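Note to self: keep these together.
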Amino acid sequence: MKLSHLIYVFASVAMVFSSPACGADLTETFDAQHRSCLEQIAKDADLAYEEAMIWRGDGGGRRARHCEAMALFALGHTAEAAHRLHSLAASNQGGSNEMKANTYAEAANFWLMAREPHQAFEAADAGLKLSGEHTACRVARARAYAMLKRYDYAEIDLTSALVFEPDNADIYRYRADARFEQGKLDGAKSDIERALDLDMTRVETALLRGRINESLRQAKAEGGE
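Structure:
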């Protein structure tokens, strides 16, 4: 697992201190310990999980709980990691609304990996209620819709997400798939070509383009009969 997938830096700690300087120092200390905990996952996920549990018992709060969940994910316990993140985002330790939305997005993506679309929808939807412009939550909700075969709703969410990230190749690929599943072949073709223009390295994008092109070829052949 790439370390970049595990590093999530929080801006503040949900505690009140006697002086601003003390608060700033402790925030930096907690952030540094959080980074160290996440980095440990890439080296030894079992040890990182154990240390995160100890840290949580010592008052590590949301950072410790977050690292616990990420370690569980690295160890292959995807659904449990999703549940932990979902619970963290919903708790009074979740931090600011933006922090909670970020955690809900992580939970939603883990739920999707665990093939739990209803749970993924709930997490992503909760995040959007806190931060309506949160692209990761909107994309996760769209993917949950697609997994539930509600491709029309998936397309709507993905179209909205592109307003905020118009050069995101993944969003175009997801929308191409949603449109393809609805039989909107011309729109799917346009989206998949845009996705390839933005990122030619994704194998799944090339595979989807092949499926779309084959369907267009069949439709043309049938129309000519």
